[in-house]
Structure formats: structure tokens, C-alpha cells
Write a structure and sequence with these properties.
alpha/beta; 14 strands; Rossmann fold; 2 domains
């Protein structure tokens, strides 16, 4: 008779959690593990992203406990910020690191801690707990630091950028060596983490997955095309080239572009669209995750873009999985791992990042596709998710890593 392994006691640490859209990955891990019979606590901040202020109806305090199904969620205060100030953003990250350390009740009994590392500062608490309670932690690296900080323009002075890079790399090397396991979101990212001192035998790749898997619908082709970008309008996304390429397509009747979201580059993009006379572009405010199905339903193609930056080849934006899961083919203006996924899966068009000419050509080609071709792209998009980005596959892999790491 086969004995089932005992359930784990897992603490999930993440600066983000629903109702923040940025919190869908840690939430799906927490919920997925709880559905598999594990006891799951979450330590997170009060919701404030991407607005830089605590959501209406929430009041920050210590000792806040709520329940997300069978998951216990413990929120700690944070200094909200989403500005372009390096100092204020650092305070934002470090404030969560500091207050999360106080959530020891969630950790004393834990077998293992899972850290959602959009910012590696979220791992400061788990590092302290490892020292105090010998609780191992698994680090799920979403963004590669220090490049994602320096490359976004937060540190503008060259000397300061060099100093920040040196200090952060030294600290990150220690962090990755102390983690029981490190999970990367792309093969290239895993290779880089190992090159920087991580242990190859303790480093794995788990592609980010699609949280929702709706039944993809066939879109009636009536000669019109709606191309959507939904997500963060930030400097790392390389969206100015997208706006300029879209404006060049103003001569194509029935082709329109919709940008849904907000971010540090939003005002610049709106101003650019006005200055170049882009009448085929509409900007809309960000929406909640439960409103995203309507956004996907409107799209014939979705844009997934990154700036031409050192870390772009090893980054797979989460909006790629969301679009593909909804059966929406993508126009991928990015290099590397994400481009390979789209190209190899036949799920859209790929261009070089920042290349206005290539992006314009892709927009025109997308508008020119007929109904059968769009149906083929839809089928390929969903097949990619089923094979490589299904949540069950991802959570199973993470569960195995956590069980191996548990004390």
C-alpha cells in the first residue's frame, strides 16, 4: 500500500497579492498548494500597486488576518510608492522587508517558505527566519536584479549605477547561495543565475503559467482588426516604438489599437501619440483581473513588448501567457526566450524590439490575415499553453521543489 506524503506547512511571502493584479502568481501558488492539501499562510503587504497608494477601503495595521479560501493571508504595513524616485522605491521595497519580518507566527511552524521575488528584498525576512528558526526558503525569481533596476532609469548617475550594481550583485550572490532552491522563469534566466554563483543542481526553470483557461472563442473576421496592449506602461516595455509604428498604419481602415493600463511611461506615450497625430490609438485606464476577459475578447492580436535591454532576452512577460490562454495570437516585439516561444509555437508574429519598421510591418501583416489564418493562430496559441504553461504542470513542479527543500 502506497503511503501519501504528509501535507506541508508552507509560508508564501510576496509583496503583492490580490486584489493587486501583480499578485496573481503568488496567489495561484498559494491556492494551488492549498488545493493539494497543504497548509498555506501568506505574508504580504496591503494592496497599493500600481497606484502608489493603499486601495480604497483598506486601512494599514499590524495583525491583519484574512482568508482566501483555505489560505490564511497576513498583511503587514508598507510605505506605498510607484514613482520614478529611486529613493522612494527603495523605501517601498525595504519597508515591506522590515514589516514582514514581524510575521513570525506564520513561519515558526512552517516546513518551507516560498518567496515570490519580483523584488529580491522580499527575501530579507526569509533570510532572517532561516537564521532564527532554520526554516529553508525557495526563491522564485521574477525579475533579474540589478539590471531591472538600473536599466529602468531609477539610478541615473553612472557612478551611482556602478556602485549599486556592485553592492546588489554581492548581496544577491549570498541570497541565491542561501536559498534551498532558486526558480527562474526562463531558461536564459536560469543560466545567468548559475553563472552568477547559483548552484546548478538547485536551480530550475518554471515558465510562468496562465491562471485562467477560458474556452477560446472563434472571432468573426469582418475586415477589422483590434490590436491590444494590456499591462504596465513602463520604460522597460519599449512602447514608444509601438506607438510610432501604430501611427504609421493610420492609412489602414478598420485597424485600431487599444492600450489598457498605466505606468511611469503612460503620460509620455499619450503625449507622443498626440504629437504624431495617431488617431487610431485609444488609451484606457487599468482594469482588474476579473475585467481582463473582456479585454482579451476584444482583441484580435495582443502586443507583448520589451525594450531593447540586456535582460530582455531572458524575460518572459506574464501577459504572454494570458493572451495565449485566451486564444489570442500575439505580436511579440522582443528577443530571446519569449520570442522563441511564440515563433516555435506558431502563435503570432515576432519582431525585433524597438524596430519601428519591423513592428509596422507586423501590424500590417496582422491586419491582412484572413479568417482561417486567425483560427490557426488561435489554435496554436492555446496549444502552447496546454503544453508548456498550464497551471497544474507549474504548481506540481513547484510542489516537488518545496517538498525536497522542506525541513
Amino acid at each position: 500500500m502506497t503511503t501519501r506524503p504528509r501535507p506541508l506547512r508552507v509560508t508564501v511571502v510576496s509583496q503583492y497579492y490580490p486584489p493587486e493584479m501583480q499578485g496573481w502568481i503568488p496567489a495561484s501558488v498559494a491556492r494551488g498548494l492549498a488545493a493539494r492539501g497543504h497548509e498555506v499562510d501568506v505574508v504580504t503587504a496591503f494592496p497599493n500597486y500600481p497606484f502608489g497608494r493603499v486601495f480604497p477601503g483598506w486601512s494599514q495595521r499590524f495583525g491583519h488576518v484574512e482568508h482566501d479560501g483555505s489560505v490564511t493571508v497576513r498583511r503587514v504595513p508598507i510605505v506605498p510608492d510607484h514613482s520614478d524616485s529611486a529613493f522612494r522605491r527603495a523605501v517601498n521595497c525595504l519597508s515591506f522587508a522590515a514589516t514582514s519580518i514581524t510575521a513570525t507566527r506564520a513561519v515558526r511552524r512552517a516546513d518551507v517558505v516560498y518567496v515570490h521575488s519580483a523584488q529580491p528584498t522580499a527575501a530579507i525576512g526569509p533570510m532572517v527566519w532561516r537564521w532564527l528558526f532554520r526554516t529553508p526558503f525557495v526563491l522564485h525569481v521574477q525579475d533579474i536584479w540589478p539590471e531591472s533596476v538600473i536599466g529602468s532609469g531609477f539610478v541615473r548617475r553612472r557612478g551611482a549605477a556602478r556602485a549599486a550594481r556592485f553592492v546588489l550583485l554581492a548581496w544577491l550572490r549570498r541570497l541565491h547561495r542561501r536559498a534551498a532552491h532558486v526558480i527562474a522563469i526562463a531558461p536564459g534566466a536560469a543560466r545567468l543565475l548559475v553563472e552568477r554563483g547559483g548552484r546548478a543542481e538547485r536551480t530550475s526553470t518554471v515558465l510562468n503559467w496562465a491562471v485562467q483557461l477560458p474556452e477560446p472563442r472563434r472571432r468573426h473576421h469582418d475586415g477589422t482588426t483590434t490590436i491590444v496592449y494590456a499591462g504596465n506602461l513602463g520604460p522597460n516595455q519599449g512602447l514608444e516604438a509601438i506607438v510610432r509604428a501604430a501611427a504609421r498604419c493610420d492609412d489602414l481602415p478598420g485597424l485600431r489599437f487599444v492600450f489598457v493600463g498605466d505606468g511611469l511611461a503612460a503620460e509620455h506615450l499619450r503625449r507622443t501619440a498626440v504629437e504624431i497625430g495617431a488617431t487610431n490609438i485609444e488609451f484606457r485606464p487599468p482594469v482588474t483581473r476579473d475585467q481582463m476577459p473582456a479585454v482579451h475578447a476584444e482583441a484580435d492580436f495582443e502586443i507583448v513588448a520589451l525594450a531593447d535591454a540586456p535582460m530582455s532576452p531572458i524575460t518572459v512577460p506574464s501577459k504572454l501567457q494570458d493572451a495565449l490562454a485566451n486564444g489570442v495570437p500575439v505580436i511579440a516585439a522582443l528577443p530571446g526566450d519569449a520570442a522563441d516561444i511564440v515563433r516555435d509555437g506558431g502563435a503570432g508574429l515576432v519582431t525585433a524590439p524597438g524596430n519601428v519598421d519591423e513592428i509596422e510591418s507586423a501590424f500590417r501583416a496582422a491586419h491582412g490575415t484572413d479568417g482561417p489564418e486567425r483560427d490557426r493562430l488561435t489554435d496554436n496559441a492555446r496549444a502552447l499553453v496546454e503544453q508548456h504553461m498550464h497551471p497544474d504542470v507549474a504548481i506540481d513542479h513547484i510542489e516537488q521543489i518545496l517538498r525536497k527543500a522542506a525541513r
